[in-house]
Description:
A: alpha/beta; 22% strand; B: Rossmann fold; Rossmann fold; globular; disordered C terminus
Amino acid sequence: MLYVKAGRTPDDLVVRGARVLDPVEGLDAVCDVRVDGGTISAIGAGLDANGHRVIDGAGLVLAPAFVDPHVHLRVPGGEDEETISSGTAAAAAGGYCAILAMPNTDPVVDSAAVLGSLIEDAQREAEIPVGFLAAITRGQEGAELTEMVELAEQGAAGFTDDGRPLVAPALMRRALQYHGIAGRRLALHCEEPTLSKGGQMHEGAVSAELGFTGYPSVAESVMVERDLSLAAYEGQPLHLLHLSARESVDALRAAQAKGVAATAEVTPHHLCLTDEAVRTLDSNVKMNPPLRSADDRTALIEGLRDGTIGSVATDHAPHARHEKEVPFEAAPFGVTGLETAFAALYTNLVEPGILSLEILLERMSAGPARAYGLEPPKIAVGAQANLVLLDTAATWRVEEAAFRSRSANSWLLGHHLTGQVRLTAAAGRMAFEE
Amino acid sequence: MGEIHVMREGFLPPKPPPRRHLISIGDLERDDVERLLATAGSFSRSLEREVKKLPTLRGFTVVNVFYESSTRTSSSFELAAKRLSADTMSIKAAGSSVDKGESLKDTALTLGAYDPDVIVLRHPQIGAPELVARYTGAHIVNAGDGKHQHPTQALLDLYTIREELGRLEGVHVAIVGDVLHSRVARSNIQALALMGAKVMLVGPPPLIPRGIEAMGCEVSHDIGAIEAVLRMQRERMAEGANYVPSLREYTARWGVTPERIRPGQKVMHPGPMNRGVEIDPRVADAADALIETQVRAGLVVRMAVLYDLLTTGPVPVAAAEPLEVA
């Protein structure tokens, strides 16, 4: 399900004196971690270096590396905006050891042939392991199901029509039925298109004042409720993409309480910003779903904290410069996020005391891994080295020139952030080092 | 010794006036509006003279860029600039490079290369004036950006109301019709609230945007007790769009008819009008209709806006003298 550049030689390494923090393993101690041949071989105080390279972790946090369940790598078809090589390098710089790529490409990943060629490319180019989701419907047109079972056998990490809603309820139901044999997670972009039609931003006081057509929060939540009802009826799990509205979080929490196996994700921008940001008319705060009200933001943070929402997902959506250098109304939806996610959330949620570091680390790593049935990264003897070394005291300025991504449509350009990734090890090998 | 002077005063280039734009009524304070209306009043008096042209903005260049059709706004800006002796140039999207797919950024860079002092921009998309402001050094005057703002229309409406009623503070104004799609409504709500008027929005519920009360207005269906009515133009009222079930029903419930107007209630309309739909012809042609007054006000208000951006402060008496023609 995950694919990485072939011929990577595993690394030997000792990280000395870091605060080793793995909330899932219940580990929080200042100690050393040794990696032998890409596998964690010892955790403890005063470990022998065994002649390995030693990294001074004093004052830093060593945690399981992150997993991003929602990345647009733009290949095939959008290589000017991102490639497997640039996108995975950006992910490594953001502390990620694995990412999942969305299939809304040109052509759409809806056949074994397109998926197979992406897997081959990943085995040549991917700096960290990458999984590819395939479309639920052919061409993501919402009319005919793809050959989900064959695609799963071919290595699809899951199924989604992300970017577009699955409008027909009967088709959604059949996709859930096929999920029972394909076994790879269905991920839903919940948007009722007649309610969101023409919508440029969240419907509320700000859209009323600025004159933008509103994209109301119910456009998301009515589809969330529908999909949860169908999942309950069919007894199948599902994953809800990029939740933005309080009503959606409430519906999900209620469904989970009734035993529906639903997981969900939320993006750093929905956790940090509200629709007030659109007053800048900066096209880098235009995304789908849109930034919502302060009350919605509060509900998302609460949902992330109590575990209703188990994953942080960047929805990293690179766009060419000329596409975003237009009036807000003409700009495409989407912003980048791989290289800023941890720092944005650390600065806006952890530092002010809104969310604990432990919960953030879990929701950026084990949470998304579990949602897609991947092995969660962990700091334990015998586990593959998927590690991130974080400097939670460092502040830095987000600069376009420093991005490894091919695109720079970040809502954080020019902002100062706290929390910096110093080192990322992915699948046993050093993938990024500051 | 204290400060170190790198350059003597005389060597420094003259200070340019502070870079300002008029993109939204939100760019203005109450004092700014008072000054603009007073300046417009002075220009209005100067236009009563035999020679109407003033030398005030001689040597300045005003470029009008219209990406949407417009009769009164574009002609009014052009005439305003000419009355102040500025050089003017008008560009319409049709027949220009825009037709060949040129981006707004490139058009802005191209126009910017001529170093215009003011760019008057009308564009169908919200955020276009900010974009042009980023890529040129000119003052930007927003002559309408999508459904967002049309600040000079709101200023001329303020001017008209004050001319008629003698005040703005405490005046009750109803804005009737399609508020959802109207930049004129948004600018007027903001401008009237800024000046202490009371604004009420009246119209079919789907055409009143959710959350608009936060701008400082009320939503109601009663137009009985107000002193001025601003009529919204018919936009997207086509049957089938489903904002209104039919034009017949719209007219029956929200049309401004003589029966709905008290004597002395003033009626305004930003144009173009759809007689018989949102406004009864008997109302449009009645003595209390201020529609032509609005057009005349548009000229002097736009003169005031151009003057205010290119100079600063109130119009000096000397500037209001007519240009001597040799």
